[in-house]
Amino acid sequence: MRKTTRKAWALAAGVTSVALLATACSGNAGGDDDETAGGDITLTVATFNEFGYTDEMFARYEEENPGVTIEQKRAATADEARENLNSRLAAGSGTSDIEAVEVDWLPELMQFPDYFEDLSSPDVEGRWLDWKVAQATTEDGKLVGYGTDIGPQGIAYRADLFEAAGLPADREAVAELFGGDSATWEQFFEVGKQYSEGSGGKAFFDSAGAIYQGIINQEEFPYETEDGTVTAVSDGRVKEIYEQVVQASVEDGLSAHYSQWSEDWTNSFQNDGFAVMLAPGWMLGVIEGNAAGVEGWDLADVFPGGAGNWGGSFLTVPSQGANVEEAKKLAAWLTAPEQQIEAFNNKGTFPSQIEAQESEDIQSATNAFFNDAPVGQILSNRSQGVVVPFKGPNYFTIQQAIGNALTEVDVNGADPAAQWETVVGVVEGLG
């Protein structure tokens, strides 16, 4: 029997250090051939947030592959999934047969490629965008993950709240309001001030951390260079972005002061907590779920600073698994264009597969919840001209430190300068 579970994995230590993987690496033992070859097997698939994989999809695979049962384990957040995977890799057992990995923490795992199966195969060559493949390929050519989605971003907004504040509400007019093809972050914040004034001081966007994420993802080398030099503090650009976001969020009062994925943030969708969100494709399903029954959401084909990509994930096959060959087959099937189109239709996860992106299914896709917005065309447009940031092994640690600092400032009212010094301490501690 197939089942989908949502499980919050609690770690005794609180935080799993990637260094733990290094100490365990010498004892890493790859999985043997499928232990139940010729018999019935259960394949576990660990995902997080919303991948768009449904019980119906898994049932179809099971029907086509007699003897295979699939169990999906879904973590509430990517951070939760990361901690779970790191702890089980370090322990040498307990991973799922397929583990979903988010691009921000993939570079950590790429330091330990022996933990994962090589997924290279002539059958999948040319399936994905070149830069998507490059993100999961080691220097010696090992492919450790099959791409699922990417995260081109538009601006999701509440048309009814815009209208009530005296702003344009039509999606084309909203795109022009933000600057159209010449949209800038300065103009984004200016529109926020207009909304705040017209609405009697209501919050414009949900979270300082989300806005920071949108800006930093447009930097080619946000925190470190390809030779491993950490520049997050030394070059001044990151601090400049941090201060810009703090100014808009706290001093100008444009933030609703939520931490994304918190209970308060989730509940705020039901009480008009804010008017705008930066929205990669995968976020559309999250918004629809949190805002169920709320009318007025729409999606504008515009993004400040040009194109921007937030997130995107991969399916990996840990070598410690008992059914690695069958897991590879399932991972290849799930990331085939047909299944990723279906996942997009389910939850808005924009496919990284070239054939899927070019398909009529994607190009003509609309989303009823977002006022029948042509989401396929919008996200296709938004994917053009994306600058793919370099994300080295320190990326996640630095990003998390800055995210924590912004949460303290935006949500808890902490001093911005003191929180920045905390970030500096984390960066300097990297050596």
UniProtKB/TrEMBL annotation:
Keyword Signal present in the record's keywords: the answer is yes
Q: Where is the signal peptide?
A: 1-24
What InterPro entries has UniProt attached to this entry?
Bact_solute-bd_prot1 (IPR050490), SBP (IPR006059)
Q: Indicate yes or no for the key word Signal.
A: yes
Its keywords, alphabetically, are: Signal
TM regions (residue ranges) = none
Q: What is this protein called?
A: Cellobiose transport system substrate-binding protein
* Organismal lineage: Bacteria, Bacillati, Actinomycetota, Actinomycetes, Micrococcales
